[in-house]
Amino acid sequence: MSNDKKQPQTLRRYVLKVQSMIALIIVLSYTLVINFYFIHGLDEANFQDLHLESNDFARQYQINNHHPLPNTIHFQGFLGWKNLPTNVQEHFADFENVNKMTMDNMRIFTDDTFISWPEQAIFIIAQPLFDGKTFYLVRSINIKQYDALSQMGISKMFQLTWPIALVFLIIMHFSVQLLLMRTLKPFYQIGDWVESLTLENVNEQTPNFEFYELTVIANQQKKALLRLGAILDKEQDFLRHASHELRTPIAVVKSNSELLTRILSSENNKDKGDQSLARISRAALNMQHTTETLLWLSQEQSTAQGSQQTLALAELDLNLMIDNLVEDNAYLLQSKQVKVTLELTPTYIKVFETPCRLVLNNLIRNAFQYTAAGEVIIQCSQCMVIVENINISEGELDHSGADYGYGLGLRLVDKIVNKMHWSYQNNQRCGGRKAIIDFRQSV
Asked: What enzyme category does the UniProt record give (predicted)?
């Protein structure tokens, strides 16, 4: 990747840049607004003077129609349109015939300069009199005559305006700096918190980041980490369950392979060879089905309807399955004084085969594994299977292991029966456990 790639700008620099642009726009905008109201105010002041003077003349004229017309340095009065100066008549032609008081103004600009600047301003007011004549009052301002005074006024205005604008910019700049210091601190805090967040402390209370939006981000980060942890847990569970469930078929394949090797050396043991091959085939098929079921179990779907899309229903001989599972797990009873009692009533159920096999296999294997001496009783009747082990050994057995037994195996059983909605109980009793599972809800 190129080292010249543009680096993302910081939030502080971005806010300062935007703040400077906004401040400049505000200053320029207010300058234009002030200029507009300044000019507009001058116009209003002139019209007020003209209006008062015109009304005063109309009152005096009504008393004495020979009252002299106003003629000062500020105003010039004219009686009748024809008496107006020609330039005024040209610029205000609409004022020749008026029936009510009318006023207007005009600025005349120079054309010989780069920036157009007014050289003359004319204000006029027309007021009809009682005898039908029209009185015109005109104020003409020659701006060139006021250049020196105007330049002085403009200079004073700049001397006053720019310091105020500069103070405004400085105040705005430091205000934004203080705001950034106040708002960026929680951002740094949430950055440090996210960096220290782990699966071990994710369930601790979220710190107070002062702002609601940052708290929402922090909670979303926690949820994301929890989802990631759940995914990792599922992967680890799958590996543990796969290792746990495949031990029995692997052991069957291994033992029967050794047995088959010895049998094949003698032609008189064909029946035993066929039995060994059948066990190997059954163990390989069980491994395949077990892997598929564990993959299905690790999916997000948690309803029996979702499972039907992955697994197929089958008509099973529950007694035959129990006989095969007892035979496959018989290696766990080697060198043990354990009696296995089967009380099986012919039972045929329509059920998901591999989950059913996994559940029964775990219950039977747990009973065999955790009975050092005593009896294992397996009962099957009316779609219900009971697996009970009675250990009479004086030694203490560890029931907390995660390899075989009541740790990982029973957790897998819990997951399967919850997902398949089967009825299941597993209770501890003196010297062992009694597990009851009812498949009738799946029929």
From this structure: transferase
